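Q: What would this complex look like in 3D?
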Amino acid sequence: MKLVAVTACATGIAHTYMAAEQLEKTAKAMGHQIRVETQGAMGIENELSSSDIRQAHAAILAADIEVEGSERFEGVKLVRVPVQDAIKDPRGVIVRAL
Amino acid sequence: MQRDVSVAAEFRFECKLPNGLHARPSSRLAEVANRFQSRCGLTNLRSGATADLKGVLSTIAADVRRGDTCLLVIDGADGSAAAAALRRFIDEDLPGFDEPLAEAFPGGSAPQLPRGLESAGSHCLVGLPASGGIGRGKAVAIGRASLTVDFAGPAEDSRLENERIDRAFTGVRTRVERLLARNGGRAESAILRAHLAILGDMTLRRDLTERVARGCSAAQAVADTGEHFRALLECSGSGYIRERAIDVDELCSELLEEMYGARFQPAAADLNEPSIVVAKTLAPHQLLSLDRQWLEGIVLESAGATSHAVILARSMDVPAVVGVADATRQIATGAEAIVDGGRGWVFPRASEPVLRFYQRERAAQLRRQTALARFAAAPAISLDGESIDIGANVSSAAEAAAAFANGADGIGLFRTEILFAEREQPPSEEEQLAVYTEALRAAAGRPVILRTADVGGDKPLPYLRLPDERNPFLGFRGIRLYPEHREWISAQFRAALRASARGPIWLMAPMIASGEEASWFKNEVGLAKAELRASGLPFDEKMPIGAMIEVPSAAFALDRLCVALDFFSIGTNDLSQYFFAADRENPKLAAVANVRHPAFLALLHRIARRVREHGKWVGLCGEMAADARNLPLLLGLGLNEISTGAHAIPALKRAAARHSAALCRELLENAMASATAADVETLLDSALPGDPSEPLLSSALVTLRSDSRSKDEAIREVVGALYAAGRTEDPRRLEEVVWARESVYSTGLGHGFAVPHCVSDLVSVNSIGILKLDNPIEWGSLDGNPVRMVILLAMRETGQNGMHMKIFSRLARKLMDQEFRDRLMGIEDPELMISHVGRELEVTL
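A: Here is my prediction, written as structure tokens for the whole assembly.
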């Protein structure tokens, strides 16, 4: 299964990247493909293209703040969770997106 | 000699003061009377009591109450002028004297205790911080010397008792005079001179004689008289007069000792373990008699932050808090107390958490001092190799010695007026010479810049007999009053010149506003040189003379000033308040008199540039220099020296090493071109004070055996490591920023790790702090498990470094890897920790 995700926490120096790491690692272990965009102190990295989003089965928004460009996900199955959930229970979050 | 009685004047007045002529109005009356040669006698027509208006004790003792009518008789050559001045004072100024005094300190306000201590159940008393540092010890109450005279026996013949008193007076006077002669130039001598003045007060003497005549023994008379005057003086609203109450007390003890020798034992504190001394007030001699080895702190009820005892405490480096309401009753003798001299707090019965807090704070301060020590000893040199001297502002020779130990490159400002204050006569040439010589000895070849006495205005002196002023800061002060007081000011010029034969003394005058004043100063110093030459006393012909630049007009007379003088020191405290016409003590005007305002920076720039164009030396002394945040602006000015309180020197030297002088000049240009003070603040934020080459992680930020027991302590400890390493100057605010993030949700990410973090310019360089805990700590983690390792990520808000941000994000990702976490937990050496993290993150840390 193909997934996309965006992670974004308030300060953007720790949890954004921890959540991204957790989602990437766990998805891989579960045999899924995932691309994770981070919106942190360094700005947007690994930005999702419109074709990434189009091809995705679902999108995970693990964010404590307003995600930039959330209109990109219109018409896509969307799972919104706090950043902590993606760190604590990435598997559970991914399962909800499947 | 025949007395001229033809100009005697007299008049009556009714006392309208609700509290009568108590100590404060009496002392002001004495000041007015002492401006004249004439005798000024007062008779209280209600009681018939008479007084000499020139003696404060005397006037107080006449017990003039509200509604009493008094007769003033003025007798002498300048009698009519004296009568006119007294009349004017009594009619115009006296009625205002009983307005309620401003509370010296708003007692009872609750302190903002550090996180973790609010609920520790320790009562905290708040006073005024008087001498910094943390002291811990058993509380010891020191009362005033006991004047119980049971040992003396019943009164004998009144003639015998009077003779005893006479002998005691002579004995004490001789002893005080001998001590004074031996004690040239020390703070103690002020108290000795006060004793002499009281010994000469006729009212005291008369009171004793009357008591003996009524059948008292000499001992009883001295004890009662002492009690009588002490009580009178203690009621005074003036701190100066209240201090005289201690003097009376002390003197009576000495008289008793003189009369009865060893039979009279004044209560003295015998310290034999670490002690906190608690007293209503403390006389300098009482303080000096305490065993320094056991003296850990001082708590006083009286509020004088500039009293002799406080100045001594500072020079002895003993923490002190003053103005603590009811301290002697609130602090039980024998309890374990803590004095926090920096915050002005006293914990009368410190609980375990409080003791632990201060123990750890002391350790953190020690670490910082150790880390800073290497900067203190070295010169301050910018990144691009320009040097600036960091001098110290001091008020005494003892303070100078402490400043050099703290790394001062010189004494940039020696405020000599302290030598002139709180005494009855100006200091002699010899006494001053001794003090300046002592400072030179401490300086060991480094320059000592003396500022001639900046008195008058808000710093009146009894012997100057200055008129009251409506607006003392704009008044008759500094160099303005020297021409009328040439006698004692030329003694200061001579003392400075004679000291210049012994080392590099520079002499500058305060409040110079024009070329005329500069020329007068130069000329007078020239006259002093001629006098010394005539007496065959050595001095340095080339002793530099200079001026404080603190009056804005001086900034526009520099071409003239540079002709007469050799060097200049910008006094930013006064200069800013005169420039903006804003009282610096009025908190509502703090934003107006802002030393970082573009207009003020332009003024500073003009002064520095003009003086440099003339090839003369220019420095800056004032509060502005103490704040490391201003350093880039000051470096941009191209000053020869900045001078400030000694405690700030090591941190300033370290900060100087992190700036490029060329970039600072650019920054200053931009700051001067800014529209608002807020724009300057933004510029300063972006002025990276951090050395860009300073690594994110260093072994100084790694603690592998932390004994922190709570989240509070752990955050304080890891932030404290940044403070010790000079990566933040405000650890308390930084802690709060870290806590603000914790309040969103815990940074405990599970698996025994916590990653507290912040984005704040309170850190000067991006930093990673690591703490490995001996005891697991509850952190509110995602998995509910306690934390064993804390990794603080502290990032600057402005002046970002992309590489550092990448490392932060890589580290955050790595922490999701169990293998990485296990490895970190197993490392037992700080250097290994750094190299391992560096390798894992693929960076050279």
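A: To summarize the key features: Residues 1-5, 99-108 of chain B have pLDDT under 50 and may be disordered. The two ends of chain B are 91 Å apart (CA to CA).
Q: Very helpful, thank you.
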